[in-house]
Amino acid sequence: MEKWKIEFRIVNIDHSEERPSVRIYAFPALFEGDELIGYGTDIKEYLSKKIPNQ
Fold first, then answer.
1. How confident is the model at residue 54 (pLDDT cuts 50, 70, 90)?
2. Domains in the chain: how many in total?
3. Which residues contact 15 (CB under 8 A, 6 or more apart)?
């Protein structure tokens, strides 16, 4: 995500009081605001659609 200059923030929920807005069952999980975008390989698919010619 740094390569494409996408702003992001990593939250390790094992070491933070912060929790996602919805229950998640797999990691990593990608959120845009409070919306769950996807898990694992879903993240790569999402980014490939959002960033042409990656």
1. low
2. 1
3. none
Range of the domain at 4: 1-54
- Residues 6 or more apart from 37 whose CB is under 8 A from it? 30, 31, 43, 46
What's the pLDDT at 26?
87
Other CB atoms within a 10 A radius of the CB of residue 42 amount to 15
Give the residues across from 39 on adjacent strands.
Answer: 29
**6-50 pLDDT tens trace:** 889 999 988 989 888 888 888 899 998 889 999 988 888 888 888
CB-facing half-sphere around the CA of 30: CA atoms within 13 A = 15
Residue type (1 letter), 37: I
